[in-house]
TrEMBL record:
Source species, domain of life: Bacteria
Subunit composition and interactions: Homodimer.
A Pfam family annotated for this UniProt entry: Orn_DAP_Arg_deC
Chain positions found as N6-(pyridoxal phosphate)lysine: 48
Pathway assigned in UniProt: Amino-acid biosynthesis; L-lysine biosynthesis via DAP pathway; L-lysine from DL-2,6-diaminopimelate: step 1/1
Amino-acid positions noted as binding substrate in the UniProt annotation, renumbered to this chain: 297, 301, 328, 355
Name assigned to this protein: Diaminopimelate decarboxylase
Taxonomic lineage of the native organism: Bacteria, Pseudomonadati, Bacteroidota, Flavobacteriia, Flavobacteriales
EC number: 4.1.1.20
UniProt cross-references to CDD domains, sorted A to Z: PLPDE_III_DapDC
PROSITE patterns in the record: ODR_DC_2_1 (PS00878)
Cofactor(s) demanded: pyridoxal 5'-phosphate
NCBIfam families hit by this protein: lysA
Family: Belongs to the Orn/Lys/Arg decarboxylase class-II family. LysA subfamily.
């Protein structure tokens, strides 16, 4: 998928627009599965990264399961043809009623707090349950995406293991899995392996496990020469340790991961048209036809996303601040070196596959963009651009007869 392909797609479907390269998703999946040479490996794609049904269908065709955090994501997976037995459901702070609804759908339940664990175990002792452990390991590229530390709301503290075991014993629960997720953008595999040892120790407390789920958080490159998780080195080291644990445990378990960003981030491009070039006393702004309502990661996480002028890639670079059309400050890049931009040019944002469209909104009553899947040289529309009718179809107008003042 080169610049000319992207320009043709933008011309056909308009902007702003999300475009996903199916071949990149496939190659990332194959790279991950090749890195872990174990007898039983299960990959559950984190649906929250990008939940379009066509993406779920693509991953399902590769043999990938799903990691979900809501009953709606579970239903999306089933709608995409995924067998519920290949879906793990790991909510946070939801009601017992929602968890019970998911049980009826047939997904694997993963519980991350003692209160719900006891309530669920008391009512449904025979239902297989995975337990999410908080290993108290600080990992991740940003405080907002580090979820395994001691102050995190996620998981059951490793220090609460005695209480956890008492609940399991008293209810007679069926614990078939143990799980952790320490954060996203993990670069140091030593930290990941350290957390894994904590999980192995916790797993020894349960005699009927079928799988151990190590979450994910693998870092992908965001710019040229950027560093990333050495997935092959991690695979080599963790595979050996996992096999040794299975021998100690006395049974072959399934090694599970839940990658989201790793599978889809680099596959995505976000295309936007330049509406205006605005020169001030100190800055040259490139104002584009979108805002943080469509791509919030730079504003929310401070993330870096490469921006390329695909209309004029060979021009002399200049420095621009790329900004959106929202009524509050929405700056995608400050003083960024980009090939000379003119009004009407198309800019392409890289790493737009994960947590981009899925976090889009209708702020300022703007329409959410269309989505396109690129596969074997052809573009496929997988989500239509919203219209005014979409904005109002769920609103219920009420005529209030208020006397004028």
């Amino acid at each position: 998928m080169n610049n000319q392909d992207l320009l043709k797609i933008a011309e056909e479907f308009g902007s702003p627009l999300y475009v996903y390269d199916a071949e990149k998703i496939i190659s990332q999946y194959k790279r991950l599965t090749s890195a872990f040479n174990v007898k039983k490996l299960r990959i559950h794609y984190a649906v929250k990264a990008l939940s379009n049904i066509s993406i779920l269908k693509l991953l399902n065709s590769l043999g990938c399961g799903l990691d979900t955090v809501s009953i709606q994501e579970v239903k999306l997976g089933i709608e995409a043809g995924v067998n519920p037995s290949n879906i793990i459901y790991t909510p946070n702070g939801v009601s017992l009623e929602e968890i019970e609804e998911v049980v009826l759908l047939g997904a694997q339940i993963n519980i991350d707090n003692l209160s719900i664990l006891e309530q669920f175990g008391t009512k449904h002792p025979g239902t297989p349950v995975c337990i999410r452990i908080n290993p108290h390991v600080m990992a991740g590229g940003n405080s907002k995406i580090s979820v395994g530390h001691i102050d995190s709301k996620f998981g059951i503290s490793i220090h609460q293991m005695p209480h956890l075991l008492r609940i399991v014993k008293n209810t007679g629960m069926n614990i078939n899995g143990i799980h952790m997720h320490t954060g996203s953008d993990i670069l140091d595999i030593g930290v990941f392996l350290h957390a894994s040892e904590i999980l192995f120790d916790a797993a020894k407390n349960f005699k009927d496990l079928e799988f151990i789920d190590f979450g994910s958080g693998f870092k992908v490159p965001y710019k040229e020469d950027d560093i990333e998780t050495d997935i092959e080195d991690l695979g080599k080291q963790l595979t050996g340790r996992f096999e040794n644990f299975c021998k100690e445990y006395g049974r072959e378990l399934t090694l599970a991961f839940e990658p989201g960003k790793y599978l889809v981030s680099e596959a995505g491009k976000f295309l936007a048209k330049v509406n205006v070039i605005k020169q001030t006393t100190s800055t040259v702004f490139a104002g584009i036809d979108t805002g943080f309502n469509h791509l919030i990661r730079p504003m929310f996480y401070g993330s870096h996303q490469e921006i390329t002028n695909i209309s004029n890639p060979g021009a002399k670079p200049r420095f621009y601040s790329v900004v959106g059309y929202i009524c509050e400050t929405d700056t995608f890049a400050s003083n960024r070196r980009i090939s000379e931009i003119t009004e009407g040019d198309i800019l392409a944002f890289s790493n737009a596959g994960a947590y981009c469209f899925s976090m889009a909104s209708n702020f300022n009553s703007r329409y959410r963009p269309a989505e396109v899947l690129w596969y074997q040289g052809e573009s496929h529309l997988i989500r239509k651009r919203e219209t005014f009718e979409d904005l109002v179809k769920h609103q219920v107008p009420v005529d209030l007869h208020v006397e004028s003042i």
